[in-house]
Automatic annotation (TrEMBL):
Gene3D superfamilies the record matches: Glycogen Phosphorylase B
The Erythromycin biosynthesis protein CIII-like C-terminal domain, residue ranges: 233-375
Statement: the UniProt record of this protein carries the keyword Ribonucleoprotein: no
Protein name as annotated: Glycosyltransferase
Domain Erythromycin biosynthesis protein CIII-like N-terminal as annotated: residue spans: 23-218
CDD domains: GT1_Gtf-like (cd03784)
Keyword line: Transferase
Length: 381
């Protein structure tokens, strides 16, 4: 069986596919992972998977959006998510011709796409093969899908669809207790973190103090304000008698290394390795980071962007489940973040709630079991 996986625009979206892609390869199937942004290619390769570039060289996502004339960013967070669906549809379908050209020579038997990989259903329909949609995080994509369906209405009409086609198989990684009551039936799958790996250092997989707080701001540490923000968090958290480990991109490490105390661990560290050593994880509500912490039973301090409906809704779900605290960017002073960390460390109910969600995740079918379902789907096509 030949499987093409459309991994999305960012390393964080690709990480959600690593465990299933690896399980498919371990079962003897051929897998090719594509990315609509060249920055993702080395990350795919670092995870040990074949990386296929499909975007036109030199073409950026920002240029595509500007050329499309979709207008400015809406003020309302719900409207913004609908508009984001249009943007993702535009960007993700730009390489469709390149994908079709590749498929003509490689002949995939099934197309797997992430939640916002809107070229996946179009590619599968053009090829006449099954389409599998794989969840990235715990947030439903109804608003995104509405915007994407509007943006792609002409392309869908040409294929005989009056909206986005339903997948032949939907894979959901949401813990059962966090699934929306009106969620459609889906094939559940256990979330197993997947990250680009590196040479291990002891601080990445062991901790030295009774309590360890992990801090990561994803790939957004790129300007002076963000460096100040990370530095402030670390200094205040460290004052609470807890060990601190800071996971940041390699490019940010030298700057923060100069700013932070010598006993602070800082650098690129795979979160699937680092997170199990943490008692609390502080981050900006990225879906992949959130799921990684959940799978390890680690309580979280979430700082969602108030303009991102997806982030705020995911954060709300974890707070309601008792496994996290959330702070808006306006509330998230370094002092309050440190105080919130201390609350999570001192109140065992947060760790208990996080452990309960980890047990739910661990009880879901393994990716290897889902591979069997995909094999059956292809045989029945």
């Amino acid at each position: 069986m030949k499987v093409i996986i459309l991994s999305g625009l960012a390393p964080s979206t690709f990480f959600a596919h690593v465990s299933l892609a690896t399980a498919l390869r371990d079962a003897g199937h051929q897998v090719m992972v594509t990315a609509a942004d060249d920055d993702v290619i080395p990350v795919i390769a670092a995870a040990g998977l074949p990386a296929l570039p499909v975007m036109e060289p030199g073409l950026t996502r920002h240029q595509m959006v500007a050329d499309a004339g979709l207008g400015g960013v809406p003020e309302d967070a719900v409207d913004r998510e609908y508009m984001a669906g249009r943007w993702f549809a535009l960007i993700e379908t730009k390489p469709l011709d390149a994908l079709l050209a590749f498929a003509e020579s490689w002949h995939p038997d099934v197309v797997i796409g992430g939640m916002l990989a809107y070229s996946a259903p179009l590619l599968a329909a053009r090829l006449g093969v099954p389409y599998v949609r794989q969840g990235w995080d715990i947030h439903p994509t109804k608003l995104f899908d509405g915007g994407a369906a509007h943006q792609l209405r002409e392309e869908l009409a040409e294929l005989g669809f009056d909206g986005l086609p339903e997948p032949d198989l939907m894979i959901d990684i949401t813990p059962p207790s966090l699934r929306a009551p009106d969620a459609k039936p889906a094939q559940a799958m256990r979330w197993i973190p997947g990250n680009a790996q590196c040479r291990m250092e002891p601080w990445m997989y062991t901790k030295g103090a009774d309590a360890r707080i992990g801090v990561t701001i994803g790939t957004s540490v790129a300007d002076y304000d963000q460096y100040d923000f990370v530095q402030g968090i670390v200094e205040n958290v460290a004052a609470a008698d807890a060990e601190v480990a800071v996971a940041v991109p390699a490019a940010a490490t030298p700057v923060l290394r100069e700013r932070l105390a010598e006993d602070i661990h800082v650098g690129w560290a795979p979160l699937d390795v680092l997170t199990p050593t943490c008692d609390v994880l502080v981050h900006q509500s990225g879906g992949s980071t959130m799921m990684t912490a959940l799978s390890r039973g680690v309580p979280q301090i979430l700082i969602p962007d108030s303009g991102q409906f997806r982030q705020t809704e995911m954060a709300r779900s974890l707070v309601e489940a008792g496994a996290a605290l959330t702070l808006s960017p306006e509330q998230a002073t370094t002092e309050l973040i440190a105080k919130s960390c201390q609350e999570l460390l001192s109140d065992p109910s947060y760790a208990a709630a996080a452990a309960g969600l980890a047990e739910e995740i661990a009880g879901l079918p393994l990716p290897s079991e889902v591979v069997r379902r995909i094999e059956w789907l292809v045989r029945a096509a």
